[in-house]
Amino acid sequence: xxxxxxxxxxxxxxxxxxxxxxxxxxxxxxxxxxxxxxxxxxxxxxxxxxxxxxxxxxxxxxxxxxxxxxxxxxxxxxxxxxxxxxxxxxxxxxxxxxxxxxxxxxxxxxxxxxxxxxxxxxxxxxxxxxxxxxxxxxxxxxxxxxxxxxxxxxxxxxxxxxxxxxxxxxxxxxxxxxxxxxxxxxxxxxxxxxxxxxxxxxxxxxxxxxxxxxxxxxxxxxxxxxxxxxxxxxxxxxxxxxxxxxxxxxxxxxxxxxxxxxxxxxxxxxxxxxxxxxxxxxxxxxxxxxxxxxxxxxxxxxxxxxxxxxxxxxxxxxxxxxx
Length: 323
What we know:
Elements: H1 2-13, H2 17-27, H3 32-48, H4 66-73, H5 93-108, H6 112-135, H7 167-176, H8 184-193, H9 195-207, H10 222-236, H11 239-242, E1 248-249, E2 252-253, H12 258-275, H13 293-301, H14 310-322
Antiparallel strand pairs: 1-2
Helix pairs in contact: 1-2, 1-14, 2-3, 3-14, 5-6, 5-13, 6-9, 6-10, 7-9, 9-10, 10-13
């Protein structure tokens, strides 16, 4: 029994929450300790797989320390237009801190496909990190500034050929201006399919539009925001993120090797640095497995963004329970 428990502890220290949860039933006697271990494993697995819909679940509140639940809620996407607290709609910084921790864990475990998936998620929402200091929130559709719909604005006008947004982005932007008044089903459908397009559309407004309208006239320091959004868009177009879209090979899908990931990131850093401004932060040697990534996110956010310790603390709590 002790040797089996030692295996569970070793797995917990490797963040193998799903494996510990599955194996613990055969090792631990039935009762409250076993139920607590199962609850913590489920909680940790949701965080590691970035299942943001369920980060704030209170179903197992007694098994999860309050501090861990509070920190997870900060990364939670609200499931209704009026849910409080607003979690990731208030700030994307805790989300990006968790993304960095997940990326580092996946790299150490050589789980490169889910690692690149996490990088891709970061690229989709990076413009909201750039807009957060200007908006005072992280792109909450319930709190868009009135200036987006000022006289002369093309923001959310479907079919306007002067607008730099794609048809998909125009549809998403039009939806974001009214989705806060829709029922929960409409809100969830918007989050699933359109919110990331709105993030890209916002960055396009300030960094790539050749015929600016009045939609961004309310922004006081337009040049600074444009620089940070340009870096966010460049990251989304970088060789590292393009690994997510690698073509199928044979009868399966290619998974990049560690060498391919580092080579793609090296080319991405060079490209970002050549742009100057916020992109130069990618050159920093900050000790991260993908060196410079936290520094780049921090420059785009105009605030420190470092890898969280949320998953490490969940693993430590799980080890305590198993011990």
